[in-house]
C-alpha cells in the first residue's frame, strides 16, 4: 500500500471553488510540500490557484497516477472508478452517502466497480489520509509533524481532533488514515501495513466496531509482534454501540468480546484520547520498561502522588540498594530523602538532578526512573531539562515537569532532544505502566 502513503503522483476529483473540500485537500497537499505530480480533475475544466501555485484543471484523467482522491456526489463515484481502470492503483473516497445512510446497494456497486477495475478503496465516507514522511497530506485535516505514530481512525472527525491534539502534545506522526465505512480496505489491512512500515514505531487505532473479527484478531497479533498497538474503543455501552452502528454502519458487538480480543492480541487498550497520546509518547521513546520504578522529585507532594499511582497500577516502588543510598548521601544535603521516592527538595539544581539520576540508574534493583520537576522561580526549568538530557543513563526515564509557563522552556528543550513531557505525576506513572505491559508481553 505504499502508493497510498508514499505516492509519486495524485489526482483530485471534485469542485475547486473557494471553500470546497477538494480545493482544501489540494491546498493541504501543496502547502505540505508534496514533491510529486498533482492533477486536479473536474469535467468543467478551468484553473485553480492555491498557496501561490496555479494548476490547470483537467476535464478527465488521461495519465497514470498512484492515488486518486474522490470528492464527488456519491451516485457518480462507481462510474468514475470504472473510468479509472488502468489509471490509478488506489482511490480515497471522501464522498459520503453510502451504507452509513442506508445506501447499501450503492456501496456494493462501488466495490464491484473497484474490483473490476483492480483499484483498492479507502472509505467511502472518510476524511482522507496522510503519509507524513512522504510529505503527502491527502486530507482536509490539520497537518502534523513527522514522527513515529501511525493513527488509524474509523471516524474522520475523531481523527481530525486527535491530529490537532497530537500537535499540542508534541506527538510526531508517520501516517494518518480515516477509513470510514471500510467497504474495501479496513483496520486489519492497515494494522498489517503499518506493522511493516519502517517509519512507524507505534500504531494507534480508534474503532467503533469491526466486521470481520477473525481477520482483525490475526492482523492484531501480527502487528503487536512487531510494535506496540494502542486501541481506543468507542461504543462500549449499549447506547454507545447503537450510536456507533448508525455512525459508520459498523456492527459494534459486545464490548466484552472486544476486550478479550485486545488482551489476547497483546494490544494496549486505553480509556480516553489523552491516554492514547500518553501511551504513544511513551512508546515513541522506549519499546518497554520493567516494573521496578525509582521516583526522583524536588517536591514531596507530586512524588507521593506518583508513588500512589504507580502502586495502584501494580508497579513496584524500587527498593534502592544500601550502596546507592550511601552514594546519594555523599552529595545530597542532609534534609533530602534518599529512600524511594527520592526528594531532592525545592532548591535542587542541575548538578543535584544529574548526579542523582546517574547514581540511581546504576542500581540493579531499578528498571526505570520517573523524574519530577516543579521548579522554584529562581531555578530555570531548562537547567533541570539539561540535567536529564546530559545524565548518563541507559534505562527508560519518564519526565513530569509542572506546570504551564513555569516549565515551558524546559519542556521545549526536552522535546527537542526526543524526551516527551507528561504534565501530571499520574500521567507519567501511567506511561510507565503501559511500557511495563509491553515488557511482560515480550
Q: In short, what is this structure?
A:
The chain is of the alpha/beta class and 442 residues long. The protein has 16 helices and 19 strands.
Task: Provide structural commentary.
50% of the residues are buried. This protein has 3 domains: 126 residues, Rossmann fold; 145 residues, Succinyl-CoA synthetase domains (Rossmann fold); 155 residues, Succinyl-CoA synthetase domains (Rossmann fold). The protein is 40% helix and 21% strand. It has 442 residues and is of the alpha/beta class. The two termini are 28 Å apart. About 2% of the residues have low confidence. The chain is elongated, with a radius of gyration of 25 Å. Its EC number is 6.2.1.13. It is an enzyme of class 6 (ligase). GO terms for molecular function: acetate-CoA ligase (ADP-forming) activity; ATP binding. This is acetate--CoA ligase (ADP-forming).
Task: Give the tally of β-strands.
Answer: 19
> For the report, how would you describe the main beta sheet?
7 strands, mixed
Name given to the CATH architecture of the largest domain: 3-Layer(aba) Sandwich
Shape: elongated
Please tell me how large the radius of gyration is: 25 Å
Mean pLDDT: 93
Classify the fold: give the CATH topology of the largest domain.
Rossmann fold
Strand content: 15-25%
User: Structural class of the helix and strand makeup?
Assistant: alpha/beta
Classified by CATH, the class of the largest domain is Alpha Beta
- What is the topology, as strand order, of the major beta sheet? 9-8-11-10-12-13-14
Domain CoA-binding: 4-98
Keywords: ATP-binding, Ligase, Nucleotide-binding
Catalytic activity: acetate + ATP + CoA = acetyl-CoA + ADP + phosphate
Organism: Pyrococcus abyssi (strain GE5 / Orsay)
Amino acid at each position: 500500500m505504499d502508493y497510498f502513503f508514499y505516492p509519486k503522483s495524485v489526482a483530485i476529483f471534485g469542485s475547486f471553488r473557494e471553500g470546497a473540500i477538494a480545493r482544501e485537500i489540494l491546498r493541504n497537499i501543496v502547502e505540505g510540500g508534496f514533491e510529486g505530480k498533482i492533477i486536479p480533475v473536474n469535467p468543467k475544466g478551468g484553473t485553480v490557484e492555491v498557496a501561490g501555485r496555479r494548476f490547470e484543471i483537467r476535464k478527465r484523467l488521461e495519465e497514470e497516477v498512484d492515488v486518486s482522491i474522490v470528492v464527488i456526489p456519491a451516485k457518480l463515484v462507481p462510474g468514475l472508478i470504472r473510468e479509472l481502470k488502468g489509471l490509478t492503483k488506489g482511490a480515497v473516497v471522501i464522498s459520503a452517502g453510502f451504507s452509513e445512510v442506508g445506501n447499501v446497494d450503492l456501496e456494493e456497486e462501488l466495490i464491484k466497480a473497484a474490483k473490476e477495475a483492480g483499484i483498492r478503496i479507502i472509505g467511502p465516507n472518510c476524511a482522507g489520509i496522510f503519509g507524513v514522511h512522504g510529505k503527502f497530506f491527502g486530507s482536509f485535516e490539520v497537518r502534523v509533524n513527522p514522527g513515529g505514530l501511525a493513527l488509524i481512525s474509523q471516524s474522520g472527525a475523531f481523527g481530525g481532533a486527535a491530529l490537532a491534539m497530537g500537535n499540542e502534545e508534541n506527538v510526531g506522526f508517520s501516517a494518518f488514515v480515516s477509513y470510514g465505512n471500510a467497504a474495501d480496505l479496513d483496520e486489519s489491512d492497515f494494522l498489517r501495513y503499518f506493522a511493516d512500515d519502517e517509519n512507524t514505531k507505534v500504531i494507534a487505532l480508534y474503532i467503533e466496531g469491526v466486521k470481520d473479527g477473525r481477520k482483525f484478531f490475526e492482523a492484531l497479533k501480527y502487528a503487536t509482534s512487531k510494535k506496540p498497538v494502542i486501541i481506543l474503543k468507542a461504543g462500549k455501552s449499549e447506547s454507545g454501540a447503537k450510536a456507533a452502528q448508525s455512525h459508520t454502519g459498523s456492527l459494534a458487538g459486545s464490548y466484552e468480546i472486544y476486550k478479550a480480543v485486545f488482551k489476547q492480541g497483546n494490544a494496549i487498550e486505553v480509556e480516553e484520547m489523552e491516554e492514547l497520546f500518553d501511551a504513544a509518547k511513551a512508546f515513541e521513546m522506549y519499546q518497554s520498561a520493567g516494573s521496578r520504578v525509582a521516583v526522583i522529585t524536588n517536591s514531596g507532594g507530586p512524588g507521593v502522588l506518583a508513588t500512589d499511582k504507580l502502586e495502584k497500577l501494580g508497579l513496584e516502588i524500587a527498593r534502592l540498594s544500601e550502596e546507592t543510598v550511601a552514594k546519594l548521601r555523599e552529595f545530597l544535603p542532609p534534609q533530602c530523602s534518599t529512600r524511594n521516592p527520592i526528594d531532592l527538595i525545592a532548591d535542587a539544581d542541575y548538578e543535584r538532578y544529574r548526579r542523582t539520576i546517574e547514581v540511581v540508574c546504576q542500581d540493579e534493583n531499578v528498571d526505570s526512573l520517573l523524574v519530577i520537576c516543579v521548579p522554584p522561580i529562581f531555578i530555570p526549568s531548562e537547567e533541570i531539562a539539561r540535567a536529564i538530557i546530559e545524565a548518563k543513563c541507559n534505562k527508560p526515564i519518564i519526565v513530569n515537569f509542572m506546570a504551564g509557563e513555569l516549565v515551558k522552556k524546559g519542556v521545549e528543550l526536552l522535546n527537542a532532544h526526543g524526551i516527551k513531557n507528561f504534565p501530571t505525576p499520574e500521567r507519567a506513572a501511567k506511561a510507565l505502566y503501559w511500557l511495563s505491559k509491553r515488557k511482560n508481553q515480550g
